[in-house]
Amino acid sequence: MNRLKGKVCVVTGATGMAAAAARRFAEEGGDVFVVAKDEDECAALAFPYALADLRQEAQTEAAFTAARAHRGRIDSLFAVAGASGRRIGDGAVHEMSQAAWDGTMALNATPAFLAAREAVRVMMAQEPNDVGSRGSIVLMASVLAEHPEPARFATHAYASSKAAIIGLARSMAAYYATHGIRVNAVAPGLVTTPMSARAAADPQSVAFAEQAQVLAGGFLKAGEIADAAVYLCADESRAVTGQLLAVDGGWSVRGATR
User: Fold this and answer.
1) Rounded CA gap, 185 and 169, in Å?
2) Residue 41 to residues 15, 21, 170, 223, 246: CA-CA distances in angstroms?
3) Average pLDDT, the chain
4) Among 229, 6, 257, which residue's Cα sits nearest to residue 131?
5) What pLDDT does 195 receive?
6) Pick from 182, 169, 78: nearest CA to 133
7) Which candidate in 49, 158, 175, 231 is catalytic?
8) Average of pLDDT values for 27-35?
9) Could you tell me which residues come within 8 angstroms of residue 30 by beta carbon, excluding any fewer than 6 positions away?
10) Could you tell me the end-to-end alpha-carbon distance of the chain, in angstroms, rounded to an integer?
11) Average pLDDT over residues 3-30
């Protein structure tokens, strides 16, 4: 406990993995501030929050201004906010419209960029802590970015948006290391969240999860992703940057056995 004691931790999103992370950060002593677009979901978490559609630059800037005003600094960002693009037409490339492509990128890559940008702006202006860190940023990728599953998850725009986030994390990590700012990403597999409800109701997807994510025996729990984020935000990982941490129960290393 207290691995995040005294740290101001911003979490984007207010359900699923974001909600689990906010609660887990608080358990570890973090001072949690939530940024999301739904007021009821934010209020249900009982942490200070600012409302913003993280696809919108001005709203994101205002939300992070409020986050900074909360305690005068931001020590960590876990940028979770994102969504499936299926409802707007994400799928196989030959069946996808440009609107579906653009919309899915806006749902995932844009919120990660804007949240990371605003966090970096705050972190660069603050003094390092006692281990020389100005802050830690953790972005949300997906196992699908590097380990596709064409038979069940042919969502090419979603996978591409998450691959863009990995590239963003690595390029940022290289640039901001000399400023004492770390940037990493986590790549979950199938996790029990509101976004995965469709897959969780599909017997074939459930069977796939049980086989591919053998260490978890099926769908992962949201708290398991939160645990990984705690490590990457805590000072114990102060020498870790530019890394992609897969939390997928074995999916990424079991492709040939599925």
Assistant:
1) 6
2) 7, 14, 31, 18, 27
3) 95
4) 6
5) 75
6) 182
7) 158
8) 98
9) 4, 5, 7, 8, 9, 76, 233
10) 38
11) 97
Please compute the mean of the pLDDT values over residues 154-169 and round it to a whole number: 98
Q: Would you state the pLDDT for residue 256? A: 41
Dump pLDDT digits (tens) for 59-97.
Answer: 999 999 999 999 999 999 999 999 999 999 999 999 999
Q: Is 158 a catalytic residue?
A: yes
Residue 258: HSE in the Cβ half-sphere, 13 Å Cα cutoff: 22
Q: Which two tokens stand for residue 131?
A: 């281990």
Strand ordering across the sheet containing 8-12: 49-51, 31-36, 8-12, 76-79, 135-140, 181-188, 244-247
* Strand bridging mode 76-79 / 8-12: parallel
